[in-house]
Design a protein that fits this description.
Strand content: 5-15%
CATH architecture of one domain: 3-Layer(aba) Sandwich
CATH superfamily of one domain: NAD(P)-binding Rossmann-like Domain
CATH topology of one domain: Rossmann fold
Distance between the termini: 40 Å
Order of helices and strands: EHEHEHHEHEEHEEEHEEHEH
Number of strands: 12
Strand order of the largest sheet: 2-1-3-4-5-10
Helix content: 40-55%
Length: 317
């Protein structure tokens, strides 16, 4: 088991939605603020190799969250950027971390935590999604470039363990939501987008809200604080090459999700389904048994999590 108290930890993407929550939790459990390094994207472009080398200097643990992320529309609009940015950042960060020990003649980076995505599963995968089925087909088309770029991180992680003995693990996160999420309709995911649309419709007295697709697709959602707890537990306790699903093991149809968010926000108008727009992957629901091996189970009740997210948006937007 790795004790994090006195470790120097690099968190790429540490200023983002998941990263900022992780930083606060690490401080709560005793990691000193001066031992947490966060690259600031405006000044540290991790697509640049020299910046990656600079970031891992004197670091014990890398938790790699950084990447270009967004909803279906963003993925469709910028597929090349989603592929290149995510692939090059991950490849370079892991290689820089691997080299840190050799070049500086020190113990180097002790562990690399690579954060993958449930999008990497094939479009038509038996439910629940099991890690051993990850390679049994091509990802859903609208986010395939992003999904494949993130999937290469798993290949790299396993290859580096095999050849170099480099301790890198790969966590496959379900769709996240929670306080501090991205509510920009150009790039947000479904929960923050629905919350914003419903609240703005109430405030402007609109009688309907438009939602993409048929509503028949299902998704599994993980509250951000649960995701953070999983990352910390895996950092402390998990040291194997096999990827690990991090989720709740519970799915909800987008139609039912939309109805729930409308009810919790107080929107009483009509939901209009734009069936010309894609649903994305038909179903997502993970087998979470492997994560239980290092003690993780999600704790946040879904309705309570949605209520907290709505409250945060109303107070902080």
């Amino acid at each position: 088991m790795i004790l994090l108290d006195n470790k120097k930890i690099l968190i790429t993407g540490g200023a983002g939605f998941l990263g900022s929550t992780l930083v606060e939790k690490l401080k709560e459990i005793g990691v000193k603020e001066e031992n947490i390094r966060i690259p600031v994207i405006e000044y540290t472009d991790l697509r640049c190799w020299e910046n990656c080398l600079k970031m891992v200097k004197d670091i014990d643990i890398v938790i790699h969250l950084a990447g270009k992320v967004g909803g279906i529309e963003c993925n469709r609009k910028y597929p090349a950027e989603f592929f290149y940015d995510n692939a090059i950042i991950s490849i370079q960060m892991m290689e820089a971390a691997r080299q840190a020990g050799d070049s500086a003649r020190r113990k180097g980076v002790e562990k690399f935590i690579a954060i993958g995505t449930v999008c990497s599963y094939p479009k038509h995968t038996p439910i629940p999604l099991r890690e051993e089925n990850l390679w049994n087909g091509y990802p859903e088309e609208t986010n395939a470039p992003y999904a494949l770029a993130k999937k290469m991180m798993l290949v790299q992680s396993q290859a580096y363990r095999q050849q170099y003995g480099f301790n890198s693990i790969n966590l496959i996160l379900s769709n996240l939501y929670g306080s501090g999420d991205n509510f920009n309709l150009e790039s947000s995911h479904v929960i923050p987008a629905l919350i914003r649309k419903c609240i703005e419709a109430i405030e402007s007295d609109k009688k309907e809200v438009e939602v993409w697709g048929t509503g028949n697709a299902s998704r599994e959602f993980l509250y951000v604080e649960d995701a953070v707890r999983a990352i910390i537990l895996a950092t402390e306790k998990y040291n194997k090459s096999e990827p690990v699903n991090i989720g709740t093991g519970i799915e909800i149809r987008i139609k039912d999700l939309t109805k729930l968010i409308a009810e919790l926000t107080g929107f009483k108008g009509r939901i209009v389904w734009d069936i010309t727009k894609p649903d994305g992957q038909p179903r997502r629901c993970s087998d979470i048994s492997r994560a239980k091996e290092f003690g993780f189970e999600a704790e946040t009740d879904f309705i309570e999590g949605i209520k907290k997210t709505i409250e945060w948006y109303r107070n902080e937007r």
